[in-house]
Amino acid sequence: MLTIIGSxxxxxxxxxxxxxxxxxxHCPGCHNPEAQAFGKGKSARxxxxxxxxxxxxxxxxxxxxxxxxxxxxxxxEAHEFIRDLRKAMKPGMELWLWTGHGLDDIP
Length: 107
Known about the structure:
Blueprint: E1 3-10, E2 15-20, E3 42-43, H1 44-57, E4 62-67, H2 75-88, E5 94-97
Parallel strand pairs: 2-4, 4-5
Antiparallel strand pairs: 1-2, 1-3
């Protein structure tokens, strides 16, 4: 199950950062080693339900997906989460994916 560890506003980059739980890479010098384990945090559906207001009241123009790695999640769950994010985001907002996967791996 896709889970979200948490989120925070990054005013310097005008972004809402969303941290996904789970990564299979275990890169040396990982930026978020605490996010490597799968299943930490809240289910993505519950997180969206509790945080949907941020997308209508927030002043950010970007949504960053970090982690963990969204691309290491079950594909159908990642697609569903992206779909729900897009529905909640204001028109013109940017969605950024931070991943260790290559561009050819991203649908």
